[in-house]
Amino acid sequence: MFTTEGAFSGFSVDDVEAARVFYGDTLGLDVEVNAMGFLDITLPSGGRVLAYSKPNHEPASFTIMNFSVDDVDAAVDDLRARGVETKIYPDDQVPSDAKGIVRGWGPDIAWFRDPAGNVLAVLSRS
C-alpha cells in the first residue's frame, strides 16, 4: 500500500564530502553520512533530505531548498561572512541589490549555490 509517511526529498551532488562540509559546517544543518555513502540531512523542522553522488552531475537550475528567515539582510550578511556568495544572477536576469537580495517581487529573497552548483535561497518569512 502506498503511504506518504516517511517521504523525503533528494538531490544530487558531484562531491559528497564538499556537500557534507557545506550543509553541515557552513550552513549548520544536521548531516550524517549513511551506509551507502550518501548524506542524510535533517532539517530543523524534522524534514529529511538525501544528497547523493551522481556520475555526470548537472547542477539544478531551480531552487532545491529554501531557508525562511525573519531578516533576509542579516541572513545574507551571515552567509557572506561564512564565504557564501549570494549574488549569483546578473542584474539583467534578476535585478538585485549589491548583496543579491531581490526586493519587491514578493518576499525579499537571495539565491546562492552549494559546492555542486545547486541553487538554494534565503527568503523573508513575512
TrEMBL record:
Pfam families: Glyoxalase (PF00903)
Residue ranges annotated for the VOC domain, each copy included: 5-125
Domain of life: Bacteria
Protein name: Glyoxalase-like domain protein
